[in-house]
Specification:
The protein is mostly beta strands and 152 residues long. It contains three helices and nine strands. The strands form two sheets. Strands 1, 2, 3, 6, 7, 8 and 9 form a seven-stranded mixed beta sheet that branches. The longest helix is centred in the N-terminal third of the chain and has 9 residues. The radius of gyration is 16 Å and the shape is globular.
Length: 152
């Protein structure tokens, strides 16, 4: 386990204040975007969780409201998000360890609330996701929506 700052900062960024904070990484482009390509190859991790919120926007424009929906396992057990991490090195030599979960298309349960959802890695796939010898193309099959029955 390691404490990290939420919000992925690619290693090549010179000043993180001038780079948009990446709070989620799209599974469809992680392998092709320069910001994430190296991390997908060498710095995959798991973010343990027991629940998460997804926001549903009601209405449009200035008067739109957002409503939070809690998603969790029916048995209240733990699960893990697929995520990527990176250590950003500042010019003064300090380091910031950053992380962001990977999202994909929403499953059937979540589609009415939001079009995306976090990628949840099944326990049987933890070793394959974390294996540094595994190629990014070999782990791509793990970047899928969770089964509808997994969450409530």
């Amino acid at each position: 386990f390691m404490l990290m700052r939420w919000g992925f900062i690619p290693g090549w960024v010179k000043d993180p204040r001038e780079f948009p904070l990446v709070v989620n990484i799209r599974s469809e482009s992680a392998a092709t975007k320069p910001s994430f390509r190296a991390a997908l190859t060498r710095r995959r991790c798991l973010m343990p969780a027991d629940a998460f919120y997804e926001w549903h926007r009601l209405g449009q424009g200035r008067h739109a409201q957002s409503r939070a929906y809690l998603f969790r396992r029916a048995d209240r057990g733990m699960f893990a998000f697929a995520a990527l991490w990176e250590t950003w090195h500042s010019p003064d030599g300090s380091e910031i360890d950053t992380v962001a979960p990977i999202t994909g298309a929403a499953n059937g349960l979540m589609a009415a609330i939001h079009d995306r959802c976090p990628v949840i890695v099944e326990p049987r796939d933890f070793d394959g996701w974390l294996d540094p010898a595994a190629e990014a193309r070999d782990t791509a099959a793990l970047l899928r929506p969770p089964p509808d029955a997994l969450l409530e």
